[in-house]
Amino acid sequence: MSNITNDNKIEVGDRAPDFELLDTDQKLHKLSDNKDGMTILAFFPAAGSPVCTVEMCNFRDSLNSLKSKNVNVLGISVDSPFANKVFAEHHKLNFPILSDYDRQVIEKYNVVMPSLGKLKDYKVAKRSVFVIDKNSQVIYKWVTDNPLIEPNYNEIRKVTNTLTG
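^ thats the sequence. predicted structure below, dont judge the formating
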């Protein structure tokens, strides 16, 4: 298994950096708490934006089949727990939406988008997906510089299906 490279890029085979983030009820979640199965980390730029809404609703709609295979989903944005709560409740999201308000986790995972649209120097998460196995190893990575592009949900489903039987 390789280690994190000097340029801080996390690659498939690397150990996923642990973190501790607040959810919409301001309860702490750690990646290392999920030891029973796989975890999908879905970083997204902005709660309530059109593409982020579609993406999180896609994860919501596939969650029952994922949960039956012991796959957890964690959505992560730099939005406050309060904004994330409104977003999660409005769209009936059935998995934790975590707040990386101090931007430490997007830095750890090297998924920082330096500006969002016309908001120059407003750092947000690049739309990205990491699948982490129960041993904290990254088994899938997808990152885009274009916030309008959604991940390939079928590809993510195939990765989780292959490893869960």
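Residues 24 and 86 are 8 Å apart (CA to CA).
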